[in-house]
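Quick one, tokens below:
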């Protein structure tokens, strides 16, 4: 990672002295005070990994760690200043699913910077028992790769990876399903739509809880599948939304593509360096 940062700075032509810092975007849960990834459920072996101090030591630059879902929301917030961006939810769809929330113009982080863990919200559909929460209808269980792979095989889709493989194999398996869909395989498209429908169910619950008017769907997987799923997810969210007679929920895809988290990481550095902090403005 340090080598890549050095290469980016060199290729940019920007003097190193002008670089404010480096944003490191990781899946939660994390400990932002220690700069440590705690134990992300879908990254095998990444338990209690210090992400900040080693990079700071090697790069001699300030390093800021941020959760991927929150970083994506910050990226969306920096992208524009229209009124909808004062209150919105970002559904980050990658290897896992998480939410970033902006309320009254401020990122909602929670007391430990881990807000937005929605993997164990109920989808309302029985799937399989979750090895973490024990329920059989949570989002994590519904979108686990082993279940998706089993359904893909049952419908005649040939995958080259095992159902319960490594993180790399799981990613490769999803890429195979996406590739089939892009080649015109309607079975693969339908399977993807079913999976993203579960995301819509949970997003609708968040809209009910927070009463927001905008949901932005983002992340590396969504940037690949959103073309088939946006209309369905929009309908599911608005059907689930209890205050639909008061206002609708706008649902749109991020225009920042699969690098939304990385863009958010850069915005986090800018936020830390340039945005006024309330504590600094207090009159003593």
């Amino acid at each position: 990672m340090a080598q890549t940062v050095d290469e980016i700075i060199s290729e940019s032509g920007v003097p190193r002295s002008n670089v404010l810092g480096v944003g490191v975007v990781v899946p939660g849960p994390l400990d932002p005070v220690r700069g440590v990834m705690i134990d992300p459920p879908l990254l095998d072996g990444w338990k209690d990994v210090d992400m900040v101090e080693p990079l700071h030591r090697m790069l001699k630059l300030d390093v800021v760690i941020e959760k991927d879902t929150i970083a994506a929301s910050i990226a969306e917030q920096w992208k524009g200043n229209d009124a909808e961006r004062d209150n919105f939810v970002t559904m980050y769809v990658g290897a896992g699913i998480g939410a970033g929330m902006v309320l009254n113009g401020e990122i909602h982080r929670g007391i430990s910077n881990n807000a937005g863990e929605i993997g164990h919200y109920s989808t309302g559909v029985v799937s399989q028992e979750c090895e973490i929460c024990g329920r059989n209808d949570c989002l994590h269980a519904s979108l686990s790769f082993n279940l998706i792979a089993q359904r893909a095989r049952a419908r005649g889709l040939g995958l080259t990876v095992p159902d319960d493989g490594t993180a790399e194999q799981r990613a490769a398996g999803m890429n195979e399903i996406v590739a089939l869909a892009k080649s015109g395989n309607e079975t693969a498209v339908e399977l993807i739509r079913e999976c993203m429908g579960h995301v819509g169910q949970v997003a609708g619950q968040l809209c009910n809880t927070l009463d927001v008017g905008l949901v932005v769907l983002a992340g590396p997987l969504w940037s690949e599948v959103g073309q088939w799923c946006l209309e369905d997810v929009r309908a599911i969210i608005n059907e689930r939304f209890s205050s639909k007679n008061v206002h609708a929920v706008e649902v749109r895809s991020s225009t920042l593509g699969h690098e939304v988290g990385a863009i958010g990481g850069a915005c986090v550095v800018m936020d830390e360096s340039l945005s006024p902090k309330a504590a600094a403005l207090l009159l003593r």
